[in-house]
Design a protein that fits this description.
- By secondary structure, this protein is mostly helical.
- It contains one helix and no strands.
- The longest helix has 59 residues.
- The radius of gyration is 27 Å and the shape is rod-shaped.
- 0% of the residues are buried.
């Protein structure tokens, strides 16, 4: 009987450890996603701002001369 209880406790500990590992893995993936979104967010924001500037320039003048691309 004691052996069965000890095995059950060991299984519970292993399941808990696995859950913590999965939780850490999910947190790490979420951190990477947040970093990518913030990194791309500034690039996308700058592109939209450039597009807005070109639209305003076209409205006020003959053409838009955006800066040369990379």
């Amino acid at each position: 009987m004691r052996t069965r209880i000890a095995r059950g406790q060991q299984n519970a500990i292993e399941r808990g450890a696995s859950a913590v590992e999965y939780g850490l893995l999910v947190a790490a993936i979420a951190a990477v996603i947040v970093g990518v979104v913030f990194g791309l967010g500034s690039i996308v924001g700058a592109t939209f701002q450039q597009t807005e500037d070109c639209i305003i320039a076209i409205k006020n003048g003959p053409n838009c001369n955006p800066p040369p691309g990379p």
